[in-house]
């Protein structure tokens, strides 16, 4: 009989699974890339990639779909992290898509480039010939995502067909595709928001400053606190005020809300999330509030 | 804190969604905005109660039709454990989804309605669970409130199911009388059933021992990826050659003598590397990188094992195959792609021995093909040797998937029963 207890902690199991997924992609695809936005999930994904191929460098480029409406703190962080790793970063610009006439900018107070990102992303995948694209999405985020595969097949239009997904068994992933198709790969599928934060704490990973409590000029819209900035059209009936806030997710300034918080350390953030009664997307993302199936519809079109 | 992955089997009528809803709700994994959305939808549809199944039915078509299409994964945690639920639907494409959900499960919960007792579908669920070698099985006898919390009724169901399970070679079997609706024996022990001396369902899920379910005896390391930094600046890294993979069985230690397949050459483990430093041992499910003492030509798809404990090197494989394709059928002469551990080859179906009726366990030897959701015993011949174990001995080196060469779809899942 074995004397030792071979129990593995949940973070070790999740990390080992994510490493296995990344190596599988590197071994079986010709041109993978990793979507890196500077948000916490993609930061964790990048750390896992570092671990999966160490001591060799990460064998694929990173890609950021830049709406031009990102938080400056996050862009600064993104560039610093890329430089530290010596990685190659591809920036796909929504502004360039607008300038080229590929998409038309929305107008009005609620204009957002959120939906335009899909075209920019799909154009970049085609231009660079990427056949596998790592995303940091988690199944606990949203109910359409709860049914998505780890290796999620996309046809030549980049579309997701939720009713016709490939069964996924054991740790065996089907990587077969035809020319022009690609696979979205989600190594963090089985992680929860709290797992991500516990991992960030354990690994001592740096994250952008806006995740921590700070003072910011904000205004209220749809019961969310939006940052006052040049990219958001604010009405006269939407007065600004100073608030002590932090960001729970990092997306566009036009649709990502801040939450009132005094958490200035990872430990305090973990305590705050453990006690919260609202999901991260419910608390902070106007893009998901459009309808019951807002995420499902965008995903079918080829969204992240 | 470790992870328990479990699958739930049963239909909405058995109270499966109510049970999952209760586990999520009581462990605070359901949030207010999710609950509000469900309450709103329930109201819009004129449902009198808050329909917790709406929490798990994520896709528009599912909500519109009131059915569950696909396996949904749910997450919750208690201070003891993190839980991953593979929630499989009760009706459409049941077998395919349950096989998928059970493939990674440490435990399966089969729900039985105490009024109806052991039905044909309960037997089907139990059979699939044992076919997939899920190590722990829980029979949750639900709706005990509707049979006056009767001990006699519970005993009756237990005896009937135990008799059936003995034919299946079922693993660790636990019976728990519950009422998902009222919460009896779900999170805490019920006062309504003082005759029941076992633990509540959640207590059982928190404490069932799973670490030794993994194969810790037969060393199996499928080589997934070769790490060669080719560094021009560091002499040490210039010559670095590591074999990366996820341990599929046994315990590996530096200094161990190992054997490489297909070459049959032996060497020793020089070091087990990770980003966080070298480790003294590696076991499933760790992802590590091995360095070996001798220079052997090793590539993806190869296997590292022990000289005195090797997998079968086989091109002729007998397996139970669960067919998952809608249009095309599996039949003798079918040519498919087979993916087993990190090795991919082509396979020819040589024979279909029988098709199994998953409700009666009857073997139909006159069957000439397997269609969607059918299971049968199949002989395959592969273009390259595979390094396999019986599925009963190791799920990771005994399982494989089949891929259609024309559509690239995953069309089957196999569990090896014999190889040579």
TrEMBL record, chain A:
Keyword Ion transport annotated: no
Main EC class the enzyme belongs to: transferase
Location of region: Disordered: 282-304
Claim: Ion transport is one of the keywords in the record: no
Keywords, sorted A to Z: ATP-binding, Nucleotide-binding, Nucleotidyltransferase, Transferase
Gene3D superfamilies xref list: HUPs
Annotated ranges, domain Phosphoadenosine phosphosulphate reductase: 32-257
Any GO MF annotation of the entry: nucleotidyltransferase activity
InterPro entries the record matches: PAPS_reduct_dom (IPR002500), Rossmann-like_a/b/a_fold (IPR014729), SO4_adenylTrfase_ssu (IPR011784), Sulfate_adenylyltrnsfr_sub2 (IPR050128)
Pfam families in UniProt: PAPS_reduct
NCBIfam families per record: CysD (TIGR02039), PRK05253.1 (NF003587), PRK12563.1 (NF009214)
Family indicated by similarity: Belongs to the PAPS reductase family. CysD subfamily.
Protein name: Sulfate adenylyltransferase subunit 2
Source organism (scientific name): Microbispora amethystogenes
UniProtKB/TrEMBL annotation, chain B:
SUPFAM superfamilies on file: EF-Tu/eEF-1alpha/eIF2-gamma C-terminal domain, P-loop containing nucleoside triphosphate hydrolases, Translation proteins
Catalytic activity: sulfate + ATP + H(+) = adenosine 5'-phosphosulfate + diphosphate
EC number(s) given by UniProt: 2.7.7.4
Keyword Transmembrane: no
Signal peptide: none
Superkingdom, taxonomy of origin: Bacteria
Class of the enzyme per the UniProt entry, highest EC level: transferase
Domain Tr-type G: 1-214
Function: With CysD forms the ATP sulfurylase (ATPS) that catalyzes the adenylation of sulfate producing adenosine 5'-phosphosulfate (APS) and diphosphate, the first enzymatic step in sulfur assimilation pathway. APS synthesis involves the formation of a high-energy phosphoric-sulfuric acid anhydride bond driven by GTP hydrolysis by CysN coupled to ATP hydrolysis by CysD.
Similarity comment: Belongs to the TRAFAC class translation factor GTPase superfamily. Classic translation factor GTPase family. CysN/NodQ subfamily.
Name the UniProt record assigns to this protein: Sulfate adenylyltransferase subunit 1
Organism: Microbispora amethystogenes
Lineage: Bacteria, Bacillati, Actinomycetota, Actinomycetes, Streptosporangiales
Name of the gene this protein is made from: cysN
């Amino acid at each position: 009989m074995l004397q030792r207890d071979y129990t593995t902690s949940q973070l070790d199991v999740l990390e080992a699974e994510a490493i296995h997924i990344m190596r599988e992609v590197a071994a079986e695809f010709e041109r993978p890339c990793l979507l890196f936005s500077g948000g916490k999930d993609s930061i964790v994904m990048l750390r896992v990639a570092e671990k999966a191929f160490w001591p060799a460098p990460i064998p694929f480029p990173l890609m950021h779909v830049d709406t031009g409406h990102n938080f400056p703190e996050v862009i600064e962080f993104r560039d610093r992290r890329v430089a530290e790793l010596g990685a190659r970063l591809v920036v796909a610009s929504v502004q360039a898509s607008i300038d080229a006439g590929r998409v038309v900018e929305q107008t009005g107070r609620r204009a957002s480039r959120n939906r335009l990102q899909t075209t920019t992303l799909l154009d970049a995948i085609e231009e660079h010939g990427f056949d596998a694209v790592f995303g940091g999405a988690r199944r606990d985020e949203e109910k359409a995502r709860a049914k998505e595969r780890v290796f999620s097949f996309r046809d030549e239009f980049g579309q997701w067909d939720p009713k016709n997904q490939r069964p996924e068994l054991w740790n065996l992933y089907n990587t077969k595709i035809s020319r022009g198709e690609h696979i979205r790969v989600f190594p963090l599928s089985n992680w929860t928001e709290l797992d991500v934060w516990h991992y960030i704490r354990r690994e001592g990973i740096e994250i952008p400053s806006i995740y921590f409590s700070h003072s910011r000029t904000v205004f209220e819209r749809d019961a969310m606190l939006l940052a006052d900035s040049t990219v958001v059209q604010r009405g006269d009936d939407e007065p600004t005020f100073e608030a002590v806030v932090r960001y729970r997710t990092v997306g566009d300034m036009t649709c990502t809300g801040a939450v009132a918080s005094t958490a200035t350390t990872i430990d305090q953030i973990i305590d705050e999330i453990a006690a919260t009664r609202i999901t991260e997307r419910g608390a902070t993302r106007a893009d998901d509030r459009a309808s019951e199936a807002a995420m499902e519809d965008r995903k079918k079109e080829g969204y992240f | 804190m470790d992870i328990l992955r479990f699958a739930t089997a049963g239909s909405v009528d058995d109270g499966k969604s109510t049970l999952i809803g209760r586990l999520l709700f009581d462990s605070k994994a359901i949030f207010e905005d999710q609950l509000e959305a469900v309450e709103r939808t329930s109201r819009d549809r004129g449902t009198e109660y808050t329909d917790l199944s709406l929490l798990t039915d994520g896709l528009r078509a599912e909500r519109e039709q009131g059915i569950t299409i696909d396996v949904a994964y749910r997450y919750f945690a208690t201070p003891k454990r993190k839980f991953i639920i593979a929630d499989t639907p009760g009706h459409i494409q049941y077998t395919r989804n349950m096989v998928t959900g059970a493939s990674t499960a440490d435990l399966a919960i089969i729900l039985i309605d105490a009024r109806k007792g052991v039905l044909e579908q309960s037997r089907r669920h139990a059979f699939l669970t044992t076919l997939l070698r899920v190590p722990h099985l829980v029979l949750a006898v639900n709706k005990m409130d509707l049979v006056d919390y009767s001990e006699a009724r519970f005993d009756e169901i237990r005896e009937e199911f135990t008799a059936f399970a003995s034919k299946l070679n079922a693993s660790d079997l636990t019976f728990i009388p519950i009422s998902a609706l009222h919460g009896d024996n779900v999170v805490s022990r019920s006062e309504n059933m003082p005759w029941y001396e076992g633990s509540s369902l959640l207590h059982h899920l928190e404490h069932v021992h799973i670490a030794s379910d993994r194969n810790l005896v037969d060393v199996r390391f499928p080589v997934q990826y070769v790490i060669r930094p080719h560094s021009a600046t560091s002499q040490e890294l210039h010559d670095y050659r590591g074999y990366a993979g996820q341990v599929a069985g046994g315990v590996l230690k530096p200094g161990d003598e190992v054997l490489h397949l297909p070459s049959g050459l032996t060497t020793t483990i020089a070091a087990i590397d990770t980003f966080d430093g070298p480790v003294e041992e590696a076991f499933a499910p760790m992802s590590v990188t091995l360095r070996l003492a001798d220079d052997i030509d090793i590539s993806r798809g190869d296997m590292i094992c022990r000289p005195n404990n090797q997998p079968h090197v086989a091109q002729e494989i007998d397996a139970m195959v669960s067919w998952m394709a809608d249009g095309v059928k599996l039949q003798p002469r079918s040519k498919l792609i087979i993916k087993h551990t990190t090795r991919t080859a082509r396979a020819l179906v040589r024979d279909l021995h029988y098709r199994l009726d998953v409700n009666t366990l009857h073997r139909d030897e006159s069957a000439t093909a397997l269609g969607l959701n059918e299971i049968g015993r199949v002989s395959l011949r592969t273009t390259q040797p595979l390094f396999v174990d019986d599925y009963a001995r190791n799920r990771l080196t005994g399982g494989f998937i089949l891929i259609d060469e024309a559509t690239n779809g995953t069309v089957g899942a196999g569990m090896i029963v014999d190889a040579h």
